[in-house]
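Q: Entry one of two.
A:
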Amino acid sequence: MYFINDTLNSHHINCNTGGFPNLRWNRNKDFNTFIPHKQTHTKLDLGFLFSHLKIYLKPTNKKQNLFLNNQAKIKIVVFWNFYLERQSKRLIKLIKKNINLNKNKENVEIYFVNNDKLYIE
């Protein structure tokens, strides 16, 4: 999920990527530009804000303030898990490559959200 000034600008869903056993995260060349093109249009496009999501994010280190800086214009939230560990790593690698396309060198904050508990419960 790519947010610009709190507003969701682009998001990608693994179910829509195609490919097995390797998900083709960039199958439509969406990640060839910074910010990536939207993979699909959903109800999330209608006013979903980073501030809506951030209240649910918890740091792994309880003494750490997760939003200490919180100054970046662009925020990227990556949901990952060990269930799809290889695919998660491939996605993270693609996002890092995508950030390097940031020609304006705007500040970017990345939040990695582990969602393994969703598969356990």
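Q: Entry two of two.
A:
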Amino acid sequence: MSEEESILSVEVFFCLILVTLFMHLTVYLNIWKVRYIHESGIIIIIGIIIGIILYFAWEEPAKFDASIFFNFMLPFIILSYGFNLKRRRIFRNISQIILYGVIGTILNFVLISWFSNLLSNWGAMYTDGGKTEYISFEESLYLGAVLSASDAICVLSLVQENKTPQLHSLVFGEHIVNDAIAILLVRSVKEAGFQTWTAGNFFSFVGIFCIETFLGVIFGIAFGIFCSFATRYLWELREEESKQLALMFYIAWLGYVIAEMCQVSGVITILICGIFSNHYAWYNLTSHARIVVSNSFKFFGDGATATVFAYLGLTSVTYTNQDISYSYILCMVFSLMFARFITTFGLSYFARRHTKNFSLNNRSLSLFWIGGAIRGAIAFALILTVGKDETGSEDDKNILHVTVLGIVIVTTLVIGSILPIWVKIIKPEEETSKVVDEDDVRRTLLAVKRDNFVVTQEDLAKPKSWLHRKWVEIDDKHLKPRLIHPHALEEQLKAQQKLEEKLKEENADVYQIAREIAEEGKEEEKTDLLGDLRKSDDR
């Protein structure tokens, strides 16, 4: 075995140890009630220590390969988000998620790009090597696009769904949309070419961004339908859970790869594919296969996330001190916080003025603001795609890389430690609507969500809009009969009829039934009836 292979083996060995530790810390930090540091921060610190030891042992620092991340890790993370999405809550708040996830991310991109260029022109990028570096306009756009990708892992672990359902759905939904938009922004900056600012470059950037977004949605719908067709017509695989898992997984991954080959957003493709598969292909699985597929996708996503955090620590010694500008990193962290503050409270003010169902108070918004200032794995992986072809020199490339790495480490460790304290101080809660009509409760119970869904008063009282009712009508009459096997539809209908009979019983306590279903949803093993009830239909 060559020395290079030996080093790689040692890196993989320590990386696997860190991933295993990450998975266990996720559970045991809650048991031990450790609130002041997130498991991702612990893994980064341990990774840095191991990285330093490896560097002094071989004088060859570990390296993070961005191509491996974008081809073998990111698809698993996004697929896990899409397939396990709690659509009822997400789509109820879809307008606000789009507001923060799309408009907010673009505003963050503009503000961070402006701040990074302004700070550079002021001479804030004073490196440890004794030089004052300056970045070009195009490089500031790369920084803005990369640093617009936030990381919500820490804040999601602190926000309780039963106490703050709207905040939880907004954080999760914005996180998914934000990742997709940030990746699109980086690609659009690359393809538009901003060596100099011109109106042509700007319109090219906007056009590329819009076209890739639209085509990504089309590709995602196409592969989601393909996955549903495959599980419907390959009915013989119904008893082969591993084959069903492989079929759904590889179709989604294939969609991601083909989209990237066609210069379309693979992230949006696999996200939409996961959502469609969850809505249609899920019915074609056995009740046990549903649990296997859902948990497997979550395992792939969590494993990929843990691997990235492990390598973040291991690769932190890749760069020399001469590349590091501590002053610029610190200034950019404050710039991120300020940009996030403007977009969070500015857009919230707009939402309050123009929508009726915006119920987040300032305490919840402050948590949304601080939690959204953390930068993580996506940001670091994105900056690694920016090479010397884009920056013009190896030194400029290294400066951008180490700046983003420093921001990721500082925000994860510092803000990640502040968040639990802030949650303890503000104690975010939401006022939920009172249930005034038992018919609303009955309708909601017939569409209750599986997978630990929490039935809140808002869920029970929220009426369906005209658009929602029309969608349900089209879905039931035209889409489901074509994408779901007849036997599976019959099972769902029987489950609905049984629940309706239960609700029609004399003196039936619909509120007690809601609580029972919520409790039953927490059980890992579900009966066929409960499985079909929870899926029916989350619309």
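A: Comment on entry two: Residues 433-438, 448-455, 522-539 have pLDDT under 50 and may be disordered. The chain has two domains: 68-426, 438-535.
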